[in-house]
Amino acid sequence: MQPENYQFLKANEERLAFIRLNPEWYRKLAREPGHQVQFDKEMKHFFGKTPIQRVEKVGNQLQMVNMLIQMAKVMKEE
Q1: Residue 2: which pLDDT band, with cuts at 50, 70 and 90?
Q2: For residue 13, what pLDDT band results from cuts at 50, 70 and 90?
Q3: Residue 24 phi/psi, 5° resolution?
Q4: Which site in 3, 51, 63, 74 is 20 to 30 Å from 25, CA atoms measured?
Q5: How many C-beta atoms lie closer than 10 Å to residue 28's C-beta?
Q6: Alpha carbon distance 13, 3 (integer Å)
Q7: 10 and 16 Cβ atoms separated by less than 8 Å
Q8: What are φ and ψ of residue 36, in 5° steps?
Q9: Which of 42, 47, 67, 43 minimizes the C-alpha distance to 57?
Q10: Nearest partner of 38 among 47, 48, 29, judged by Cα
Q11: Could you read off the pLDDT of 15-73 as tens digits, one per residue?
């Protein structure tokens, strides 16, 4: 692997974890180093770090908190 690709991967622990779980990216980056931007997009999607996924995660957490609050109100009324 080219030194700049190696440095690219070592700069972020998530990149190393992603490439270990998806070895086909090791081959893609070794053959065409210009795929680093695409690699980062795939990695963020895989780990749920895209803006849409983060908003969905916060929305799910808010629904859970709302449900717990409603449950607590019902328990308090009884």
Answers
A1: confident
A2: very high
A3: -65, -25
A4: 51
A5: 17
A6: 17
A7: yes
A8: -65, -40
A9: 47
A10: 29
A11: 999 999 999 999 999 998 889 999 999 999 999 999 999 999 999 999 999 999 999 99
- What is the total residue count of the chain? 78
Token pair listed for 63: 């629904």
| 48: DSSP letter | T
Q: Whose structure tokens read 């409603």?
A: 70
- Amino acid identity for residue 22 in this structure: N
d(CA 28, CA 19): 11
Q: What is the pTM of this model?
A: 0.73
